[in-house]
Design goal:
Structural class of chain A: mainly alpha
Distance between the termini of chain A: 21 Å
Helix content of chain B: 40-55%
Oligomer: heterodimer
Number of helices of chain A: 3
Radius of gyration of chain B: 22 Å
Shape of chain A: elongated
Largest sheet of chain B: 3 strands, antiparallel
Strand order of the largest sheet of chain B: 1-5-4
Largest interface: A-B, 35 and 38 residues
Distance between the termini of chain B: 26 Å
Number of helices of chain B: 2
Strand content of chain A: under 5%
Shape of chain B: elongated
């Protein structure tokens, strides 16, 4: 009954949590020679989970789930720098900071939606 | 790669940037030191950063997600020392010349600003991750 109560936000939260780590790695390596900035294509991964087939009914412990929806698979990609630097580093501080801030807002938005759903359910359960 | 890894990643960067600030301070402190022997002068030191690759954690899609940064080593600048004719200097050689360190003060100052900014950015990342985690912990309240 409550399997998919949070909709896309459950997976979005996991993905955004991963992305915070990836972007923090980029920020940490802003001065490392030959480090290549990485990121995940957020909308691509999310659209993949959108088009995923309906979950199979699991009636036995030995059954295998197809495309476990709890772990969205994020493919790490390399960022294309706007201006290449001499030391081979492709981290561009403003870009990374903007992405970090944007991801922060997205994470909090997903969290807000989940909190709203929980509040609604609590209201429905308590009836007041 | 999760929210908790941000503390390790950004923490290692704070460590590396602190070491960079230390070398800058050392270089600036010794910028004016002189010696009569050009092979014994103070040479500017600079740290070399390297990405730490985490192969132990089960990263998604079998890709090695780099975590953090470490200081691979410290290299000494090979720039030529500055030669000055100062026969009254106690460190002067028999021809009256002293050799001052090859520290480039302007380079050190810009290095310091860069390290400062990078440090602040990583502190910001830690604070953000902490805020997000605290909000996640209080989910549903």
């Amino acid at each position: 009954m409550f399997e998919n109560v949070f909709g896309i936000h459950e997976q979005a939260l996991l993905l955004q949590g991963q992305r915070v780590g990836i972007l923090a790695t980029n920020l940490a390596n802003a001065d490392t020679p030959n480090y290549k900035a990485r990121d995940i294509d957020f909308s691509a991964v999310l659209s993949k989970t959108d088009a995923a087939p309906l979950p199979l009914t699991v009636s036995d412990g030995a059954h295998i789930m197809l495309n476990d929806p709890t772990t969205p698979s994020a493919e790490l990609k390399f960022r294309n720098p706007y201006q290449a630097s001499l030391d081979g580093n492709t981290v561009e501080m403003p870009i990374e900071q903007a992405a970090f801030a944007e991801n922060n807002v997205r994470y909090q938005a997903s969290l807000g939606f989940i909190n709203g759903t929980i509040a609604e359910l609590t209201l429905a359960i308590n009836g007041q | 790669m999760s929210l908790f890894d941000v503390f390790n990643t950004a923490g290692s960067a704070l460590n590396a940037e602190t070491l960079r600030l230390n070398t800058t301070a050392s270089n600036l402190a010794n910028a004016e030191s002189v010696n009569g022997d050009p092979s014994k002068i103070y040479r500017a030191r600079h740290p070399v950063f390297q990405t730490m690759m985490d192969n132990s954690a089960a990263n998604f899609d079998q890709e090695d997600a780099g975590v953090g940064v470490r200081v691979l080593g410290i290299v000494e600048s090979t720039a030529p020392p500055l030669m000055r004719y100062q026969p009254d200097n106690p460190a002067a050689n028999k021809d009256g010349y002293v050799f001052s360190s090859n520290v480039n003060s302007i380079e050190e100052m810009t290095n310091m600003i860069s390290a400062n900014r990078a440090f602040a950015t990583n502190v910001d990342a830690i604070n953000t991750a902490r805020d997000l985690l605290l909000k996640t912990i209080s989910m549903g309240h």
